[in-house]
Amino acid sequence: MKAAYLLIALVLAGCEGSPEPAVEAAPVAAAVFPGGLVEAAWPVRMAVDAARAPYEGHPGWGQLFMRQHPEALASFLAEPQLKAGAARIHADHAALYRQAALLAAQATRHVYGGDRLPEDPAPVDYLLGEAMAVLGDCAGTSATLAKATGLSGDLSPRLTAWTTWAASPACPGDLGLVHAAPFPGLNAPSDAMGVAAPPPAPHYQFPLEAGGVNLEAIELSTLVALSDWHLDQARTLVGPEKVDQVELHLAPWRLPGEKAPTFASPPVRDDDWLFGSFVMSPEDALFLVDARATGVAAIEVWKEKSLYAAALAPAVEAGKLSPERVLDQAADLGASLKAAMVKSAGEERDFFRPFTEFAVQGLLRAGSIVADGSGEYRDAGILRINAFERANGPTIDPVFSISLAAWDAGNRSPLRAQEIIHSHLPRFPALSVARYPLDALHLRLGRTAGPAIPVQ
Amino acid sequence: MARRTAILSATLALCAVIGTGSSLSYNEENLPSTLNPLYAASMSDFRSQELVFDRLWFHDAVTNELKTRIVQKWEVADEGRAAKLTMMPGIKWHDGKTLSAKDVCFTVDAMLDPKTTSPVAAEYRQVLAGCEAQGNLVAKVKFTKAVHNPRERLGFAVLPEAGFTSTAISPDLDFAAHPIGTGPFKGSRGRRAVTFDVFQNEHHKPTIAQLRLNDAGDPTLAVRSIISNGTQGIIAVPPLLRPELSVSDDVALKSYDLRSWWFIAVNTSKGPLKDKRVREALNLIIDRSELRKLAIGTMTGDQNSPCEFISGPFVQSSPYYNRAVPVVERSDLKKAESLLTAAGLVKTSGTWTSGGQPVNLNVGMLASLNSEAEDLLSQIGNQLSASGFKRIDQKITQDEWNTRVKSGKATEYDLVIGKWSFGLVEEVNDLFHTRTGGEGKMNIFNYSNASVDKILQEYEAARTDTAAQDAYHRLHASLAQELPYLFLWKLDTRSAWRTEVRGNIIAPYYYFTEIDSWKYAR
Fold first, then answer.
1. What is the 3-state secondary structure (H, E, C) of chain A?
2. Which of A422, A444, A456 to mutate to probe the B interface, most B CBs <10 Å?
3. Are residues A89 and A186 in the same domain?
4. What is the model's pLDDT at position B284?
5. A119/B contact by beta carbon, under 8 A
6. Shared-domain flag, residues A160 and A82
7. Banded model confidence at residue A24, pLDDT cuts 50, 70, 90
8. Are B467 and A22 a contacting pair at CB < 8 A?
């Protein structure tokens, strides 16, 4: 029964209900990539029944594949030998709540920064300063916190702690401060699945001079602390010998000021961290770490080792990535993987389509990281949005979705971000914390926008 | 690898026809009722007008950056009570004349002219105070008060002074069918379709030669047509048909960010519907789960459902939505029956009567909704019939909706099924305020309730965002009690485009803002 579980999930994903959208342009023939990179990609290796068998044998992997995180964590924690699966779920939570913290910080930066109004109460400078800390802006944090006045007894020691931190070598990047007293920290792991929960929001209520109501706000550091709690769980579960896998998994989702991970030796291939993921190999993940810092230059360095770098190389035109060419390359990559899977399995199977889609969307996401690393902000956005729009069924990745919401918040664009948060709340209730600053952004922009009327 | 790329590039260059000369055909929800931006009443109107006109400022569809194509530079004037705009030189209207500051001021003056009966203009009258042309290219736009973000307030489409004889602009001018804009396309509205022909300009270089807008028609046929490349796009694909398109390698589904919610407006001035208990009973008779299953095709518990129930006049993800007010998902016929009996209705031979006469419900639905939710009108009618009401079903044309329903004149109906769409601004005051002194401009059945009016005025007067949010939370709770509307659901909009259409970024709300970058490679 258990053995059939994942296969059923894969078939469902492949041919019923909500199939994947079409590849942008059907290639005439499968593209050729450097020696063995396609064959080494996890979807191709797992096209063979025997390779997939360990993952089909447990419901936790099926739930992970379908992005049912709480269910998967419960399944994994029930069987201690599946620590890697539980660690991966915790690492996903760590990534997700870091992106939620980024979202909240971006929204706060706009509401109480550029879109600030005279009626905003003085303590919002504390919120703004903390947002700048999460965004890695040490000078901005110091300058903003220096203006914070009218703080209650609770907030005064926190203000002092952040002010000291902003002037210390720990800034930017080392946000370990969020665990220190007198920050509110987390409730003890509270639910049946052992997932930590932040204190119920709102955390603060600031009286407003007008209107007779309070401004409700959140302590942003709780999202960072929550992320760190999950990170600790993941590290503990895998132990020191595999902690690099956790770091590599989290790397694309680190906060702006955090340092990129470094490895004594490159992490080895481990299917527990690749199956159902948006990277095809550890080299792809390492390429993304590099691309985040160096942009297009990383493609040249990695194109013989990483399938994604190889696939992106032809999309570089005049030193920058062309979004249209990346879309073409994603189509080519999808076709190549599918052809290799058919060759490997000896026949076409229903689940090849969703497997392929992980690579297609993964490449678009990789393209957005490269474009961002090269300062091509809008092109990165185009690729990010294309990847998001293709997501369906198992490829609706909550971590990537929240990262898009954070990007939207950074662009002062709250509507899609609110929809994303709302749709993922049932599985990640602590996202409700991030709702407060995002809602504040929407209220602020909506009330100061040009006239509009309801229409059909 | 390099050789392969070179061969591929050469092949693409030979085979693909990209650029001027290509023509795209797409299906809209309905034909636009007008191409005059002052009288836009439906999303189809807004989308079409985006092709023909330039707004002073707009938001980039990817980065949300505030941009302009027609203003060269700007500055704050009169301590925030005005903005001085220098227009881009050399921009041509579709009749060949040159855009000038006078056109900007004419547009402002037209919106300020009380004889311009436009709801859009009425909203701008609260913001704009006047305009002064200073030379050929400089326009000083004045505001009613100092504003901290003037460009955000200047999102209106610019009209040509030479296209009108007066600043009193009425909706029935020929301009509504054959407008003159500075946008990328010159539009012409016919009886069955609208054509948009490319107009090359200093600030617009679209590569598509022509767009042809068709009425939605039968959604199943529209889906077949796009699969067979008879048409290239569908603006709103009904959820029931999305799986068919998502398995096609030739069509891509695209998100369209729009906040739309559906409702049944109740004529609270008519017969038994005056009694709140009867409205509450109707709210319990409507089985939303069943309707959603039959008309939208999604079930309770579906992950990432495009359709989500609501209990008030906002989508659930909105900060104005009051999450303490529960949705009514399933019917409760027993409770409904007891409410109707308490309201004095008598059930005779399975039919509800009032004063000895059967209660007839005249139910109308905006016809274009059928393309998104097939047979919704019949399904709602069936539920009402099954619970003992006589009913007449009627579809309402867009024209009738605009001229009679929205203006509160369609009082022969008891219930009207519709949807409202919003962007960033989710103000609903015009839907529920008593029709008086310019308020309640879209109050379908002239609903009037002093306590609701008071809440709406509190929203209007709110000095802080929090106070405004608080007012709308109270409004939501109050409307869920009073039930001038039976709130149904929000429904996501998804478009479909042939994959040969490239670079087709869809702008939130306005849709075609980035049309210049669209390409059609045949």
1. CHHHHHHHHHHHHHHCCCCCCCCCCCCCCCCCCCCCHHHHCHHHHCCCHHHHHHHHCCHHHHHHHCCCHHHHHHHHHCCHHHHHHHHHHHHHHHHHHHHHHHHHHHHHHHHHHHCCCCCCCCCHHHHHHHHHHHCCCHHHHHHHHHHCCCCCCCHHHHHHHHHHHHCCCCCCCCCHHHHCCCCCCCCCCCCCCCCCCCCCCCCEEEECCCCCCEEEECCCHHHHHHHHHHHHHHHHHHCHHHHHHHHHHHHHHCCCCCCCCCCCCCCCCCHHHHCCCCCCCHHHHHHHHHHHHHCCHHHHHHCCCCHHHHHHHHHEECCEECHHHHHHHHHHHHHHHHHHHHHHHCCCCCCHHHHHHHHHHHHHHHHHHHHHHCCCHHHHHHHHHHHHHHCCHHHCCHHHHHHHHHHHHHCCCHHHHHHHHHHHCCCCHHHHHHHHHHHHHHHHHHHHCCCCCCEC
2. A456
3. yes
4. 98
5. yes
6. yes
7. very low
8. no
For residue A17, being part of any structural domain is answered with: no
Entry pTM? 0.93
Report the gap between the CA of B348 and the closest CA in chain A (Å). 39
Q: Where are the domains of chain B?
A: 20-213+500-520, 260-493
- Same structural domain for residues A84 and A224? yes
Class of domain B20-213+500-520: alpha beta
Q: Is A447 on the interface with B (CB under 8 A)?
A: yes
Which residues in chain B are closer than 8 Å to A357, comparing Cβ atoms?
none
Chain B partners within 8 Å of A208 (Cβ): 464, 466-467
Q: What is the mean predicted confidence (pLDDT) over B387-412?
A: 94
Q: Which of chain B's residues have a Cβ under 8 Å away from the Cβ of A381?
A: 62-63
What is the predicted pLDDT for the residue at B8?
Answer: 40
For B155, nearest residue in chain A (alpha carbons): A450
Name the residue range of residue A324's domain.
25-46+275-399
Interchain contact, B154 vs A450, CB within 8 Å: yes
The minimum CA-CA distance between A143 and chain B, rounded to whole Å, is 23
Chain segment B281-309, per-residue pLDDT in tens: 999 999 999 999 999 987 666 667 889 99
| Chain A residues whose beta carbon lies within 8 Å of the beta carbon of residue B468 | 443, 447
Residue in chain B closest to A304 (alpha carbons) equals: B1
CATH superfamily of B260-493: Dipeptide-binding Protein; Domain 3 (3.10.105.10)
Contact B248 A22 (CB under 8 A): yes
- pLDDT value of residue A17: 38
Tens-place pLDDT, residues A212-221: 788 889 889 8
| Confidence class for position A456, pLDDT limits 50, 70, 90 | confident
Return the residue of B nearest to A424 by Cα: B304
The verdict on a CB contact (< 8 Å) between B126 and A324 is no
Checking ipTM against 0.85, whether it exceeds it is yes
**A201 and A73: one domain?**
yes
- Report chain A residues whose CB lies below 8 A from the CB of B513: none
Q: Inter-chain contact A423–B120, Cβ cutoff 8 Å?
A: no
